[in-house]
Amino acid sequence: MTIEIAQMTRSFGKTAVLRGIDLTVADGELVALLGPSGSGKTTLLKIIAGLDWPDAGRLTVDGADWLKLDPQDRRIGFVFQNYALFPHMTVRDNIAFGLTVRPKGQRPGRAEIRRRVDELLGFLQIGALGDRHPAQLSGGQRQRVALGRALAIEPTVLLLDEPFGALDAAVRRDLRQWLRGVHDATGTTTIFVTHDQEEAFELADRVVVMDQGRIVQTGDAATIHDSPATPFVADFMGASIQLPVTVQGGRLAAPGLDAGHLPARLPDGPARLFVRPEDLTPVPDPGGPWTVASVSNTGAHLRLVLSDAAGTEIPADLRRRSPRAAQIAPGMRVNLRPEHASVFPAETA
Amino acid sequence: MSLTSAPAVRARAVLPGFRLTLGTTVLYLSIIVLIPIIALVLTGAGIGPARLWAIITAPRTLASLRITITAAAVATIINAAYGLLMAWVLVRYRFPGRRLLDALMDIPFALPTAVAGLSLTALYSANGWFGSVLEPLGLQVVYTLGGIVLAMSFTSIPFVVRAVQPVLEELDPALEQAAASLGSRGFTTFRRVIFPAIMPAWLGGVTTSFARSLGEFGAVVFIAGNLPFKTEIASLLAYIRLEEYDYEGAAAIALVLMVLALVLLFVSNMVQLRAARHGAVTA
């Protein structure tokens, strides 16, 4: 199923939640909507499901206008953030729900429903849990049941709202791999919402980054990680250090900054450099403007805090066993060499 | 060194005053609730089974019990349906006057039952607002079973509303959204998802409503007319027996009412407990 969204807007009272969304999701694609809370990603997901309605815009799926359809007629598999399993039903009844509520003519027979549920229980590797109630399950098991309930109706589109948000780190990684496997096996067009970039990159074919109701960048992991389209994306992808620089003839310059090797495709003038702490190498130089204020050991890395005369403090991460790390000591003066960074025009405020 | 030589440490409660607070509450509960109930049971036991049976199966007692139970059952059925609807309206919709309506639901609790009985009688009597319309149509309310039902349902209606309301409010909207995305519509969603979730609370409210109706006195005696074998309720008969210095008669009838209410409460709690075990929301 190909999903096409055009010029979609949605406000809650005076708050604009979606400010013009254009997005196409190809048949069989696995797409992540990535953004901080309040970026509008869950609202977009709910609109696709028919659980919320836009103020304006179009939503077509394989050419059909879905804004004319009730949620019941869209055949959406929706996995809720807290799973929303029916507490009074067994796992088996939860999974069968979508089949048992069909109108008489379209409802499969009892034996058929039982067979389909058994098949799903096996597929989801929760075969032994069929007669339990949701309260008797762990978070990861509930997640699987929620997915099973959604898959039982053979959905046209699978939508997942923060599917791993409530799980601990180990279960999360495990389920991520498993969900990828489920997608590859079913081939269902899938969209999931997350605020975790690692999760988005690891799982999705394509990541859609949202901020304040807009799509700010779309692409694969490498593109978004290495070439963020906006300062927001750079910051959100971990380039949390901002340094003021000057662009002159296509080169970057700032006191104490060794950035001549970085490309700067900007007109001359002030600019901002976005760097990740792990991409920032301190180079010892007695005349350097930055001082190593503190060094702490996190095992794999040395975490440095560097400060300048104006009191600005920035973090830098060095691999503890790298030759560079051996040279660093607290109190030392250094220059900064960003190994990789993004440059954006200075804010015109 | 063996571990046993370590000095024993006495665990100390973090929150002080457990004994004092529990002691006070249990003592008070005993004086105000348990001892009267035990006294009633003992009095009943003192009567002896044969005499007890004779009192209960006396035609007038049986008639009053039948009237009481019938009226309480009808009143409870009305409250069960109306209370559920009222809770739904109060929780699910936002409209001007909602808070006022919500506050009105407490009136039957706050109003002296005698006042309720008097006003209902005035309204439904032959020259009252409602009575003047209904009686020419052949519908007499005062001095009939209908009047008893009316008075009982008036005084016990908040039980169902107040039991269902908080549970309905806490119900996760995602449950209904999940049902919708799975193809379930309106009443199917109510029947299969919402009602099972609020059922324990609703049942609790219905049971207390019924128990209260069984014992309702003040409101009923005004509107019932209190004709033996026709509109005389059990609690009134117990009162009459007491007036006649027939303590045994009064105690026997009271005992029957109490056993009925307790059995009902027990069954209702069992059902709620069973539902709660599966994670449904309880009041």
Topology overview:
The complex is a heterodimer of chains A (349) and B (283).
Chain A: E1 3-12, E2 15-25, E3 30-34, H1 41-49, E4 56-61, E5 64-65, E6 76-79, H2 91-100, H3 110-123, H4 139-151, E7 157-161, H5 169-186, E8 189-194, H6 197-203, E9 206-211, E10 214-219, H7 221-226, H8 231-236, E11 241-248, E12 251-253, E13 269-275, E14 280-284, E15 290-297, E16 301-307, E17 313-319, H9 323-327, E18 333-338, E19 342-345
Parallel strand pairs in A: 3-8, 3-9, 6-7, 7-8
Antiparallel strand pairs in A: 1-2, 1-4, 4-5, 9-10, 11-12, 11-13, 13-19, 14-18, 15-16, 15-18, 16-17
Helix pairs in contact in A: 2-3, 2-4
Chain B: H1 18-47, H2 49-56, H3 59-92, H4 98-104, H5 107-110, H6 113-124, H7 131-134, H8 145-170, H9 173-181, H10 186-215, H11 218-224, H12 234-243, H13 247-277
Helix pairs in contact in B: 1-13, 3-8, 3-10, 6-8, 6-11, 8-10, 8-11, 10-13, 12-13
Short description:
Chain A is α+β, with helices and mostly antiparallel strands.
Label the structural class of chain A: alpha+beta
Instruction: Provide the residue-averaged pLDDT of chain B.
Output: 88
Look at the structure and give the mean pLDDT of chain A: 89
Reported by name, the CATH topology of the largest domain in chain A is Rossmann fold
Domain count of chain B: 2
Tell me the strand percentage band of chain B. Answer: under 5%
CATH architectural category of the largest domain in chain A: 3-Layer(aba) Sandwich
Q: Descriptors for this entry?
A:
heterodimer; A: 349 residues; alpha+beta; Rossmann fold; OB fold (Dihydrolipoamide Acetyltransferase, E2P); 2 domains; six-stranded mixed beta sheet; five-stranded antiparallel beta sheet; elongated; B: 283 residues; mainly alpha; MetI-like fold
Verbal overview:
The complex is a heterodimer of chains A (349) and B (283). In chain A, 25% of the residues lie in helices and 33% in strands. Chain A is α+β, with helices and mostly antiparallel strands and 349 residues long. Chain A has two domains: 3-231, Rossmann fold (3-Layer(aba) Sandwich), CATH 3.40.50.300; 238-343, OB fold (Dihydrolipoamide Acetyltransferase, E2P). In chain A, the strands form four sheets. A six-stranded mixed β-sheet of chain A has the order 6-7-8-3-9-10, with helices on both faces. A five-stranded antiparallel β-sheet of chain A has the order 14-18-15-16-17. Chain A has a four-stranded antiparallel β-sheet with strand order 2-1-4-5, covered by helices on one side. In chain A, strand 1 and strand 2 (15-25) form a beta hairpin. In chain A, helix 2 packs across helix 3 and helix 2 (91-100) packs parallel to helix 4 (139-151). The radius of gyration of chain A is 25 Å and the shape is elongated. The model of chain A has no long low-confidence stretch (mean pLDDT 89). Chain B folds into two domains: 16-47, no CATH class; 58-282, MetI-like (MetI-like fold, Orthogonal Bundle), CATH 1.10.3720. Helix content of chain B is 75%, strand content 0%. Chain B has 13 helices and no strands. Chain B has helices spanning 18-47, 49-56, 59-92, 98-104, 107-110, 113-124, 131-134, 145-170, 173-181, 186-215, 218-224, 234-243, 247-277. In chain B, helix 6 (113-124) packs parallel to helix 11, helix 8 (145-170) runs antiparallel to helix 11 (218-224) and helix 10 runs antiparallel to helix 13 (247-277).
